[in-house]
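From the shared-data thread, chain only:
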Amino acid sequence: MKAKMKSTRTFGVEIEFTSDSYNREDIASELRHYGIDAESQDYNHNTQRVWKVITDSSCGYEIVSPVLKGNEGLEETRKVLDILNNMDGVKIDSHCGIHVHVHLEGYNPHNMINLVKTYMKYQDEINMVLPRSRRGTNRFCRDLVRAFQYSWGDTGNSYKKLFTKLSGIQTKWKNGTYTDRDAMYNLDRCFGTRYTTLNLECYSRYGTVEFRQHSGSLNSEKVSTWIVFCSNLVDRCAKVKFVQEHKTENVLHNFANIFGEKQSRPVLKYLESRALHFGFNTISGAYAHATEMRRV
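Structure, as tokens:
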């Protein structure tokens, strides 16, 4: 069963790939042939109303979507990926990634920090559904704790230190010591780069958060499930009062919490299969556990 979009937020996706057989116009032409409004463009960061095909310094090419929404946008994304997947000579490798932007309408700094806290809290479980090349030290999507260590030269219990620092920003924002701008400035300073699992720097320009951790893929179900997960997670963190630092040692419970809570059964079931594919057998039965605990 395909994952369906529950969130009403707009989103966008960037698909990185490589090809020795096609140039940008060839790719745009093939997409247009199958009814996708696409253009070959020089490299730019401008939001377009079309799918733009541009070069990418890390892997070769990138297709950037227009602003999308709902299941209609999800189906269009699946169609683009299926077209690319059927083009001989279009490939992905370990240098490629999938980047998902989710709009943060209604968010404030407190919500943003809850999103950051949730992602870092369940980083081990999120790593389970992604290949080794996208875990932890990848310089294009360094995990949040490692980015904090790198930016501040920190050693020791960096997870606890970062969590405490984030909570301090929330407290200062809530009591009026920090304005929205102050809070976001200090939040960005925690990491010092956009090359993290969650890129927060795009918020000031696009009003979005960018999920950068997913590996390159032309598999439409894999990518669309990740998009749904990201969008639902943003919705979930908009309603959380305060994310606690500690989590249980029960792996099944943790997996069910991050991939089941406010998600859907197809999302959890698919991502459990991905974790098992990567050899994380300790989460076998997570779907059954989540349904029993009414997490989905």
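DSSP finds twelve helices and nine strands in the chain.
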